[in-house]
Amino acid sequence: MPSSTRSAAALLVQLTDSHLFAEADGKLLGLATQDSLLRVIERVREEHSGIDLLLATGDLSQDGSAASYQRFHQLTEGLAAAARWTPGNHDEAEVMHAVCAGSERMQPVLDLGAWRVILLDSAVPGAVLGHFDETQLQLLERALSEAPERHHLICFHHHPVSIGCDWMDPIGLRNADALFAVIDRHPQVRALLWGHVHQDFDEQRNGVRLLASPSTCVQFAPGSEEFQVGSEAPGYRWLRLHADGRIDTGVSRVTGIDFEIDYSVTGY
């Protein structure tokens, strides 16, 4: 890769937890998820150009239907960026792979400038919680070991640390210790990025940035002890990855979305 390319900062956009349905008018907790995603995509277009990579970090679909994944692709391809997807607990991984056949959207490792981006599958079929099986941990170890000179961003769906919402602790990544055991052996890891929690999170662990992001649809209330929908608007995260390992990042939310929460839905 030319040094000029390696020295340039890369711009990434993360869209997560879109919860699309086979039906275009499907709603989650009373919010029309396709309309909400379209509003977020419109905001991305207004705020950024020249996006190098679109990251979709799970729960693209609420019902795991092929139609929902096809629609997610159709709605986002106008951003004119390379894309990588990884599944969440609502997704059907086999359907995702089938829809993405012939493309690189489900490829787990991508080199981008001075960085390597790794996408892991933390979903457990039939469960809400997350877990990395041995193949995923081996993939991570191999990808890190093969590129010690690069900075690394590791992406997945489930949160590996407590985010301050008691109800979400049991449905996070259940073997986070195994993840951190690998990461702690590789000082080139700069950040972890996930979805699932439907809210902004930005902390550090041993010099590694820990980032979570708003959903493109319904938000969860920060600091809640029990399941609670938040008042924040749908949004996305942008990241600028610099050649020296620095990360600039922020969250942007849409405006003017009002909906009535469907309180008949009592769980996630």
Structural class: alpha/beta
Any idea how many domains? 1
On the 0 to 100 scale, the average pLDDT is: 93
Oligomer status:
single chain
CATH class: Alpha Beta
The parts where pLDDT drops under 50 for at least 5 residues are none
What proportion strand?
15-25%
The largest sheet, given as strand count, sense and whether it forms a barrel, is: 6 strands, mixed
Rg is 17 Å
User: What overall form do the CA principal axes indicate?
Assistant: globular
Strand order, main sheet: write it out. 6-7-8-9-11-10
> Which sequence of SSEs, written as H and E, runs from N to C?
HEEEHEHEHEEHEHEEEEE
Q: Could you walk me through the main structural features you see in this protein, from its secondary elements to its overall organization?
A:
- By secondary structure, the chain is an alpha/beta fold.
- It has one domain: Purple Acid Phosphatase, chain A, domain 2.
- 22% of the residues lie in helices and 24% in strands.
- It has six helices and 13 strands.
- The protein has helices spanning 3-7, 33-47, 66-76, 93-99, 134-145, 176-183, and strands spanning 10-15, 27-28, 31-32, 53-57, 82-86, 109-112, 115-119, 151-155, 189-194, 201-205, 208-212, 235-241, 247-253.
- A six-stranded mixed beta sheet has the order 6-7-8-9-11-10, covered by helices on one side. The chain has a five-stranded mixed beta sheet with strand order 5-4-1-12-13, with helices on one face. Strands 2-3 form a two-stranded antiparallel ribbon.
- A hairpin with a 5-residue loop joins strand 12 and strand 13 (247-253).
- The model has no long low-confidence stretch (mean pLDDT 93).
